[in-house]
């Protein structure tokens, strides 16, 4: 941190500092590597980690927040550095979305799939391992959707957002309670 008596206002120094152009090339390389790596890690962690936001959205918020915060807090960081980082992050995001739209193979890697977890009142446990979700989590998501009996559910889908879309029978038969007190007795 600069001492108050050492500070002098210099607009050129505020924007460019003492850095040469190779610093900006390094920033470009760093942003590309970190953004790509973090998107893959967030995808690997799973839907529950990001909730309703996509992995790229989470990364965008974190990366921009850090760049903006540093620029405002540390006077030794020339403004062109965070401006470059923020611009590159925005460009990366646009390219990422464009490639995901144009290329199905990339979208399969970077975007989680929608999984059917319940069909005709029965759990599809073979699908649980794809997104590393367990039976108790499925029951929790069903209860959050207002379901008390597994037999009420015609179809339930684990969405890209980590939420569960539930389609109920019009006239269900009420059996197989998923309330915690009933599940404890069954096991």
Automatic annotation (TrEMBL):
Taxonomically, the superkingdom here is Bacteria
| Annotated TM spans | 27-46, 80-99
List the protein's name.
Uncharacterized membrane protein YcaP (DUF421 family)
Task: Spell out the GO cellular component terms annotated for this protein, sorted alphabetically and separated by semicolons.
Answer: plasma membrane
* Coiled-coil regions, chain positions: none
What does the similarity note say?
Belongs to the UPF0702 family.
Q: YetF C-terminal domain spans which residues? A: 102-171
């Amino acid at each position: 941190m600069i001492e108050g008596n050492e500070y002098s206002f210099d607009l050129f120094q505020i924007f460019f500092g003492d850095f040469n152009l190779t610093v900006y090339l390094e920033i470009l390389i760093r942003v590309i590597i970190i953004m790509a790596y973090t998107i893959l890690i967030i995808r690997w962690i799973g839907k529950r980690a990001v909730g309703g936001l996509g992995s790229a959205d989470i990364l965008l918020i974190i990366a921009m927040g850090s760049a903006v915060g540093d620029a405002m807090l540390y006077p030794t960081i020339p403004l062109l550095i965070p401006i470059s980082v923020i611009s590159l992050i925005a460009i990366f995001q646009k390219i990422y979305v464009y490639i995901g739209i144009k290329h199905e193979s990339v979208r399969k890697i970077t975007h989680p799939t929608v999984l059917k977890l319940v069909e005709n009142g029965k759990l599809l446990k073979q699908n649980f391992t794809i997104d590393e979700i367990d039976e108790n989590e499925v029951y929790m998501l069903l209860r959050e959707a207002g379901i008390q009996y597994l037999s009420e559910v015609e179809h339930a889908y684990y969405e890209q957002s980590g939420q569960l879309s539930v389609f109920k029978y019009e006239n269900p038969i009420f059996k197989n309670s998923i309330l915690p007190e009933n599940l404890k007795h069954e096991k």
